Amino acid sequence: MRPGTNAGGAGCVSMISFIGAGPGDPELLTIKGKKLIDSADVVIYAGSLVNPAVLAGCKESAKIYNSALMDLDEVIEVMKDAEASGKKCVRVHTGDPAIYGAHREQMDRLDELGIKYEVIPGVSSFLATAAVLNKEYTLPGKSQTVILTRMEGRTPMPEREKLADLAKHHASMIIFLSIGFMDEMVAQLTEGGYEKETPVAVVYKATWPDQKIVRGTLSDIAAKVKEAGIKKTALTVVGDFLGDDHDLSKLYDKHFTTEFRKAKE
Ligand code: SAH
User: How many A from CA of 202 to the centre of ligand 1?
Assistant: First the structure.
């Protein structure tokens, strides 16, 4: 067997496979995820966000469900039936399921039912966003910490995770699910201590054909986003990592010795 070949049970029929579909571009799906989707008998996908192009290779006979129209019980029922009749079932989430994917509650229910599952990770939209901006979140001398969060909206935030408190760290911040609250977001980030000139970018549908990028600062981003007509499926990224002023890394510093390379005089 060649090194790296997975001889394990990944993708076996009796197992439900949770798959990260990536941010939009169907070529940003993992090879493993694509193989599983293309061979599945039953597909449950998050229709509000997953690009249908990700499902282009599905079998003609595959039964496809849009989970945007289903509740948790209905999703589990479809998985249960598929498993009981020996059909391969895949559950396709946008980006990576571990970020606001709500797949934990599904896994818990499958545990209770004794149904096996696996998770195939995907490219989260926050990583696609850095890619389309040509930026690195962890910039030497600027920020070495990344905070993924969201605003309090229809669903509450834990008391200790208010945006203004998180903003105090001046880390690189990525704010999900909150594009409808731009004015409030800016107010809380400013209250937390970000200067008005802090750079901000909003990326709408990163890697989709209709992707849009809006760049600004905390003082003008809310107006620019309104002007661009962006109302959903967007991430807001905030921090000095968006600027051009930073130190060079030690990793590639010729005067710095690493495990693999000696420093040059
Ligand atoms: N699991 C997903 C996130 C699901 S929550 C992931 O890993 O990306 C849904 C939110 O993610 C959206 O409201 C938006 O804030 C963000 N999002 C998802 N796909 C996006 C994309 N292609 N571009 C920008 N933001 C995206």
Answer: 12
Binning pLDDT at 50, 70 and 90, where does residue 11 land?
low
Specify the pTM.
0.91
Nearest CA to ligand 1 atom 2: 95
Q: Which residue has the higher pLDDT, 40 or 159?
A: 40
125 lines ligand 1 (CB under 6 A): yes
Instruction: Tell which residue, 178, 189, 175, 179, has the closest CA to residue 219.
Output: 189
Reading across the β-sheet that carries 199-204, which strands appear in turn? Answer: 146-150, 172-176, 234-238, 199-204, 212-217
CA of 247 to the centre of ligand 1 (A): 30
Architecture in CATH of 6-123: 3-Layer(aba) Sandwich (3.40)
Task: Using alpha carbons only, give the angle 68, 72, 75 rounded to the nearest 5 degrees.
Answer: 75
Q: Residue type at 245?
A: D
CATH code linked to domain 126-242: 3.30.950.10
Structure confidence by residue, pLDDT tens digits, 101-125: 999 999 999 999 999 999 999 999 9
CB 98: neighbour CB atoms within 10 A?
A: 15
Compute the distance from residue 213 Cα to the ligand 1 centre, in Å.
14
- Helix 72-84 and helix 104-113: axis angle, to 10°? 40
Give the integer Cα–Cα distance in Å for 17 and 249.
39
The residues spanned by each domain of the chain are 6-123, 126-242
Q: Is 113 helix (H, G, I), strand (E, B) or coil?
A: helix
Q: Which atom of ligand 1 is nearest to the CA of 97?
A: 1
What the block records as the tokens of 174 is 């990525």
Q: How confident is the model at residue 154 (pLDDT cuts 50, 70, 90)?
A: confident
